[in-house]
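User: My collaborator sent over this chain with a note saying "see what the structure looks like." That's all I know about it. Can you take a look?
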Amino acid sequence: MKQALMAAAAAFALTLAVQGAAHAAEGPAAGPGPGPAAGPDTVIHAGRLIDGASKTPRDKVSILIRADRIVGVEPGFVAPAGARVIDLSDETVLPGLIECHDHISASFHKGDPIRSAVTRTAYDDEIDAVNNARAELLAGFTSVRDVGGATGVVVALKKAVNAGEIPGPRFWVAGTPLGPTGGHSDRADGLDPSLSEPSWTQNIIDSPEAARHAVRLLRREGVDLIKIMPSGGVMSIGDNPALQLMADDEIKAVIDTAHALGMKVAAHAHGKAAIDHTIALGVDSIEHGSYADAESYALFKQHGTYLVPTMLVAERVYEHAKAHPEDLNPSTAAKALVIGPMIAKNLHDAYQAGVKIAFGTDTFGLSNHGENAQEFGLMVDAGMTPADAIFAATHNGADLIGDLDDIGSVQTGRYADIVAVKGDPYANIRVLEKVDFVMKGGKVYKSGGVAAGA
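Assistant: Without extra context I'll predict from the sequence alone. Here is the result:
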């Protein structure tokens, strides 16, 4: 028996050797590997380039694109034989913008948001999501981190966009946020206790064991990151945004489990205790951060944690609470009048302290999807330079998401995600609110201010 096995092994080795020699005689196999670089399919002539790798603009640059990737960035205007030339020589060109706090499937339905909570279904949300995804892509946001939506809806949307079935940004989705009973993500909070819907309890975690199980379920369902609610919130009923509502062991269980599975964790946190404890426990980003102080900023810097300040939602909720409080539940209106101004001050103070900032709007319908770039003006009004505000939506966004090799800059090897505006955003940041050109993965979705196919 042993001799038979040895003979078979020798015969197999001889076969491999013969096949290898034959392949060597045929020459190198087709497919990835070293060899002469193919010429570009497309060349963009950028009058001015803010590349996301540096904050210093460059004039008259050619961006060479092959399929969905950038294959070169060269000074001057070059035109390789056979390449399509896109002339943006009178515009400012930037990497595709990155939105790090979005709710793509959420829209605010004026007049009765509480009624909407018990009348609208995930199917309604999915229709909204398709339209919202297209609107944000055409506004220049080629990458989006969605931090709260029905898991099945946002995962399906991500898959459909990746398959090219519908237009939209690249998505990194969190699915249903996790939080405690009575917390910001408890959808039954404030409603008649006799009401129930199975999905309302799927995201409730009141122990470390429940936290670990919930994270693993979300990963199995296809999410890319986890969102937790350690503090109360503004739009929810009754819970106090200044208080920490998740226990430290619950927070730690989420973070440790997510990190073990290769996922990052974003934490909705307004109150100082929730901010400080969650940073110390290893969270990757704090969303909002309203009550942070100098001690908090030191923790941000010590742990390398990002702040996603969400200025746009704070302004819109504040304005809504003043002008139309009848559209909001009474506790939301009262909380919005306090939290709105705090978020602007917090961004100013955090920026001055050297905290890392990533761009995020918390768009869920109080502002329309596609108006995300209004955040830039608010960031600059709060004290950021235009260069740093743009860096927050390019390099920093890619770093927070965890994909600097693919997005966030115009460099060789990155996706050809490119936008352009007329004017100089360093002189007037609000020109980013009217994007003239959008390319994602080498495909043009908007040119001359008009959507492709419109």
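A starting point for your reply to your collaborator: The chain is about 35% helix and 20% strand.
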